[in-house]
Design goal:
The complex is a heterodimer. Chain A contains 33 helices and no strands. Chain A is mainly alpha-helical. Chain A has a domain of 135 residues: Tetratricopeptide repeat domain (Serine Threonine Protein Phosphatase 5, Tetratricopeptide repeat, Alpha Horseshoe), CATH 1.25.40.10. In chain B, a hairpin with a 3-residue loop joins strand 11 and strand 12. In chain B, helix 2 runs antiparallel to helix 3. In chain B, the strands form 9 sheets. A 5-stranded antiparallel sheet of chain B has the order 29-30-31-35-33, with no helix packed on it. Chain B has a 4-stranded antiparallel sheet with strand order 1-28-27-26, with no helix packed on it. Chain B has 3 domains: 320 residues, Methylamine Dehydrogenase, Chain H; 57 residues, no CATH class; 107 residues, Immunoglobulins (Immunoglobulin-like), CATH 2.60.40. The N terminus of chain B is likely disordered. The longest helix of chain B is centred in the last third of the chain and has 41 residues. Classes of the chains: A mainly alpha, B alpha+beta. The interface between A and B is large, with 102 and 94 residues.
Chain lengths: 579, 581
């Protein structure tokens, strides 16, 4: 097969036709005479080259019987096209493709192929599809062409047609990760999760790619199989431990399930590899916030604020950080910015309402809360807050209606709603109603406590409830003592999740937050204990309790999340984190 | 961090010629001591204009020393020792098209042509038949198309060209070509060198070439015979070769299907495969690891066996890559040219240094040039040639890239400030919240009442452009066209009843006669069939040139009734033209 041919072999000129000679070794002796080589070789090369002129010239010089012009090799410049394509130099690429297609009369498959790829990148998907189809005609045995046809169909939203083409491509080339992955993607988009899962798993068996893991996890999540999704992401993180996207997603999933330790671990890892990861910052920040670690959370948020300065959830969280640090004016500023950026987000409105309640701006609070209720009419706590605002605005009738609504809607077994209602009723001298609500609250507390042994109640809530019990002369305060002991006896177990001081601190902070109303407050607290039961005193009390519950989620509520119904309760902060 | 500031101090700018007119890739640039005087030259395969004036250029110092014409686009260029003669002078091999041209002492020395590819026997038979005059060109075309559909071996150039011809040109084409045997040739896409038997720096090397037909050949440097042939699943883009042919070698090839394959001595099939999720742009081997730059703006590290080690995101797309090897200091790194006019130096995944270039760098070559060991040679997009010399004092700290807190963390949060006024308002609300709330509720109720009243009134007096009366449900909308002074006023009237037509309607207009003139301010409407839209047109002329406009009121009336069925107010636009006359 040796096709080497010495250059100064004068027969070269006859074209490589005659020269299948295994010559060559004697070249050492001969040196090409200077300069002549090129001249001669032009002729020689013309056999393998394009220039028509040279060919015709040559033909004239040769005797008639011999050579017809050699056609240029179709794939001659494929490598050049590819080099420009991968360097994203599409303009040059297109020029070369055009020349190449002219030279080969449109028969250069690879040139058409790259032209189609470029068209697709430019968004001309239909055109690219047509070109890929013509590629498939030029070379029907290539799976790649079929794959690209399918890909274009997929991008055009014709998922079923794409699936057919992928299956056809799979017939030509078995065990192709890309085909299986894309099939999974197609099935995902036509909501056939079962098939999607199947194909993505096949893709993973063939070869592991982060993309496929990501997609498979998503499919499981949409199919409602969170456990499986977590398994997939765990495997993915094992496979590529530095992929921040995977780490963040896994962290968020754990967060959703209330496994804070693991969530924090993964989010922390994500932040180690990419300290600017917005999602991870928000999630980790909100967790720190929950534990009262406002300064650290703020540090993280600063990074995020540089990266994504117009994110509503970010400003919401920053606002609540300030709230936790008792900087109410800054809190309102930030929350208002969040509100400006996302005017229909009820969570922002909720927090705004809360901060204004704390600031004793009841009229403003009323507006924010009623706006929030308009956007999300199915949440008991919102009505409860509204009722508090209304109570302070001395609109007893509407306040009572709001409480009733709150109690009716409270499906999260939040004892706070009932306690507040009880206090309200008591203050308006409806002792019987108050007793009913108090008992309802006790029921909920028992439920919660049974659900989770080391359940920790907000001490403020317990304190208030005990006073209320005394006022109502209910004997079975036992309800409280138990959980109280529980929480005290096992602070360490809880500490794994949060610093023990934190919840208290936040509550105190809030208590002091009310400092402007302090005189008011203190007067009140005594009386409740004494159960003098003047109407006035109780009023501000409720929101002192509320305040901790909502923004700073940590003490009671998030714990609730762990025990009973994780999704709904935790959703508040978390969903914000995710979007 | 080693940002731009500190890097001015690491490199000396030796030479920059922005109009050197070089169009080339890293694969077509090499450094070699071509005359055996201990001074390295720069050899560049210049693609010229991309289709003509391709040149082989040799630089010495800052001067272009020699220039010779190339016949085809150079796909790759390597300098290598092909024999054991003294003085040790390397030859230069230029791969272009299906051939390798070998130059020695900068003179053409030898040409090697790739063997032809296997030709489809069916195709050969068909052409044979044509030659013998057994079938005509049309039948030939049909048969060739049939072959193209079924056969595993692709058609030759001649057949594909023939298939693309018009019927009228076929005869001539067949006449011209049928005397020749059919051949299929392929093209070289990349070239590398592999030491034959010794690892010495000036040991004899084999040429390793990758072709469009997905083959990899190893050529004997003296006899130019094929020592070994290996098959890849896709066409190669670029390759890295290490080891010795006679002992053990490893060829790492990046391919057009986005995979990287590792070939070993004993097997003619790839031993390992690395599947990337995007196309590889450059491939560099550092020690035992492979560093790949991908089109998704990432740099990835793999072991020789294809295990993924790390992946980092780059600030811009990769344009070219090259190894930076300084054996005297035991330094090995990877230079990456980026689309944002930067060149970055990485050791593993740690960024050691970055410097800016005046234009996007298209090729990088690091090595001994002249008598200087650490010379960096780059060509830029506009055709510029840049040479930098590594300072002898330059130190690349091997610091871990784990940075402290990001800079942004120390930036103050931009929290909107609140004014004194705001605080005052807050205090006021605190004191008078109750009154404010009540006043608001009161006003809100009043507003609602007023709105409801106005609405009822509008309904009662048919002020709306919709008539909801049961007997004559009509809808109307109006369109004003024109710039003035004359406007065309079109009223689209629709009977919205289910089946009953409406008769005896009329339109009348009410307007300021000092401003507008209307051709017919009263019109009768024809019978309205349910569902259809009836356009009623009229012309309005604005008689004022003061640039003011007014409202024209349109009434639809039932004949014999004084109160309108519906009313529309048309806000006339300001007349932009002057009234003639």
């Amino acid at each position: 097969m040796a096709t080497a041919c010495s250059v100064d072999n004068s027969k070269m000129a006859d074209g490589s036709v005659a020269t299948e000679l295994p010559v060559a070794i004697d070249t050492k002796k001969r040196r090409a005479p200077k300069g002549t080589w090129l001249a001669r070789d032009i002729v020689a090369l013309a056999t393998g080259r394009i220039s028509r002129l040279a060919e015709t010239l040559k033909e004239k010089t040769k005797n008639k019987s011999s050579v017809s012009p050699e056609l240029p090799i179709v794939e001659r410049r494929n490598w050049l096209i590819h080099q420009h394509y991968i360097r994203k130099d599409y303009d040059t690429c297109k020029v070369i493709i055009k020349e190449q297609l002219q030279e080969t009369n449109g028969m250069c498959e690879y040139a058409i192929y790259v032209q189609a790829l470029i068209l697709r990148l430019e968004g001309k998907i239909q055109q690219s599809l047509e070109l890929f189809q013509s590629c498939a005609i030029l070379n029907p045995s290539s799976a790649d062409n079929l794959k690209q046809v399918a890909r274009s169909l997929f991008l055009l939203g014709k998922h079923k047609a794409a699936i057919e083409f992928y299956h056809e491509a799979a017939r030509l080339c078995e065990k192709d990760w890309e085909i299986s992955h894309n099939l999974g993607l197609c099935y995902f988009f036509i909501k056939d999760f079962k098939h999607a899962e199947e194909h993505l798993n096949i893709a993973l068996q063939i070869n592991k790619h982060d993309k496929t893991f990501m997609m498979l996890g998503k499919v499981h999540l949409l199919a409602g199989e969170t456990d499986k999704a977590i398994e997939v992401y765990k495997r993915a993180v094992e496979f590529s431990p530095e992929n921040t996207e995977l780490l963040t997603t896994l962290g968020l999933l754990f967060l959703q399930l209330g496994k804070y330790q693991k969530a924090f671990e993964h989010l922390g890892n994500a932040l180690t590899f990419d300290p600017n990861n917005y999602k991870a910052i928000l999630a980790a920040g909100s967790m720190m916030q929950t534990h009262g670690d406002f300064d650290v959370a703020m540090n993280k948020y600063r990074v995020a604020a540089c990266a994504v300065p117009e994110s509503p959830p970010l400003w919401n969280n920053i606002g609540m950080c300030f709230f936790g640090k008792k900087k109410y004016v800054a809190a309102i500023s930030c929350l208002k910015r969040a509100h400006y950026l996302s005017p229909f987000d009820w969570k922002v409105l909720y927090n705004l309402g809360l901060v204004h309640l704390t600031m004793q701006q009841y009229a403003s609070a009323f507006h924010f809360l009623s706006a929030a209720i308009n956007l999300n009419p199915r949440m008991g706590e919102l009505y409860m807050l509204l009722a508090v605002a209304l109570t302070n605005l001395e609109d007893v009738e509407n306040a009572s209606r709001a409480y009733e609504q709150a109690v009716a809607l409270d499906d999260r077994s939040n004892p706070l709603v009932n306690l507040n209602f009880a206090i309200f009723l008591y203050n308006h001298s409806d002792k019987k109603g108050a007793l009913d609500q108090y008992q309802e609250m006790e029921r909920k507390v028992n439920l919660l406590r049974d659900g989770c042994t080391n359940f920790e109640f907000d001490p403020e809530l317990m304190d208030m409830a005990q006073k209320m019990g005394a006022a109502l002369q209910v004997s079975e305060n036992l309800v409280w003592t138990k959980p109280g002991k529980d929480s005290k006896s096992k602070p360490n177990s809880a500490a794994a999740i949060k610093p023990p001081g934190a919840p208290l601190g936040t509550n105190q902070a809030l208590g002091q937050a009310m400092s402007s109303a302090a005189s008011y407050n203190k007067n009140i607290q005594l009386p409740t204990g004494v159960s003098k039961g003047p109407t006035m005193p109780f009023e501000p009390e409720p929101d002192v309790q509320k305040a901790p519950s909502l923004p700073i989620d940590p003490p009671g509520p998030t714990e609730l999340a762990q025990s009973d119904n994780p999704k709904p309760r935790t959703s508040k902060r978390r969903t914000k984190v995710e979007d | 961090m080693s940002e731009s500031g500190s890097d001015g101090g690491k490199w000396l700018d030796a030479h920059y010629d922005p109009v050197a007119g070089l169009y080339t890739f890293s694969s077509c640039v090499d450094l070699a001591d071509l005359s055996g005087d201990g001074e390295s030259r720069l050899v560049v395969g210049d693609l010229g204009c991309g289709s003509y004036s391709m040149k082989l250029k040799v630089y010495r110092g800052t001067v272009l020393m020699s220039e010779s014409t190339l016949l085809d686009l150079p796909a790759g260029l390597v300098a290598f020792f092909m024999d054991l003669h003294e003085p040790r002078i390397p030859a230069v091999a230029v791969a272009s098209g299906p051939c390798i041209y070998v130059y020695k002492n900068l003179r053409p020395y030898f040409k090697f042509t790739l063997p032809g590819l296997e030709v489809n026997t069916l195709e050969q038979d068909v052409w044979q038949q044509v030659k013998e005059g057994q079938i005509d060109p049309l039948t030939l075309k049909e048969m060739l198309e049939g072959i193209r559909k079924k056969a595993n071996i692709p058609l030759s150039v001649r057949s594909t060209r023939f298939l693309s011809l018009e019927t009228s040109d076929m005869d001539a084409f067949v006449q011209l070509h049928n005397q020749q045997p059919i051949r299929r040739q392929t093209v070289i896409t990349c070239i590398g060198t592999l030491k034959k038997s010794t690892a010495d720096e000036d040991g004899v090397s084999c040429l390793v070439i990758g072709t469009e037909s997905c083959d990899v050949y190893v050529l004997d440097p003296e006899a130019f015979i094929i020592l070994s042939k290996m098959l890849l699943p896709a066409a190669p883009i670029t390759m890295d070769v290490t080891g010795q042919f006679d002992v053990e070698f490893r060829i790492t090839v990046a391919c057009r299907n986005g995979n990287i394959y590792v070939l070993r001595r004993e097997s003619d099939k790839p031993k390992y495969c690395i599947e990337l999720s995007s196309h590889p742009v450059g491939l560099v081997r550092v020690g035992k690891n492979v560093v790949v730059g991908c089109t998704d703006e990432s740099l990835q590290g793999f072991t020789q066996k294809g295990k993924k080690l790390w992946r980092i995101i780059l600030p811009a797309p990769v344009i070219t890559m090259a190894a930076m090897d300084l054996p005297t200091r035991g330094f090995q790194g990877v230079l990456v040219g980026l689309a944002n006019c930067e060149v970055q130096l990485y050791r593993d995944k740690n960024l050691l240094s970055t410097f800016k270039t005046p234009n996007v760098v298209t090729s990088i070559c690091f090595g001994r040039y002249g008598r200087e060991d650490g010379t960096l040679i780059m060509t830029t997009k506009g055709g510029g040639l840049m040479m930098k010399i590594l300072k002898r004092t330059a130190v690349f700290d091997d610091r871990d890239s784990a940075p402290g807190p990001p800079l942004a963390q120390s930036v103050r949060l931009n929290v909107p400030k609140k004014t004194k006024l705001y605080v005052d308002q807050t205090l006021r609300e605190r004191e008078n919240g109750l009154t404010m709330h009540r006043a608001f509720q009161m006003d809100l109720s009043r507003l609602r009442l007023a709105t409801a009243k106005a609405y009822v009134k509008a309904l009662e007096s048919s002020l709306t452009p919709m008539s909801s009366s049961l007997s004559e449900p009509i809808k109307m909308n109006a369109v004003v066209q024109g710039l003035g002074p004359s406007f065309k006023l079109t009223l689209n009237i629709q009977n919205t009843a289910a089946c009953r037509p409406i008769m005896n309607l009329a339109i009348s207009f009410l307007y300021d006669e000092s401003l507008y003139r209307m051709r017919n301010p009263y019109m009768r409407i024809p019978l309205l069939v349910p569902g259809l839209i009836y356009p009623v047109e009229t012309f309005v002329e604005c008689t004022s040139d003061k640039g003011i406009s007014d409202i024209i009121k349109v009434f639809i009336l039932h004949e014999g009734q004084s109160s309108p069925l519906l009313t529309a107010h048309i806000n006339m636009p300001v007349s932009e033209g002057l009234m003639l006359s």
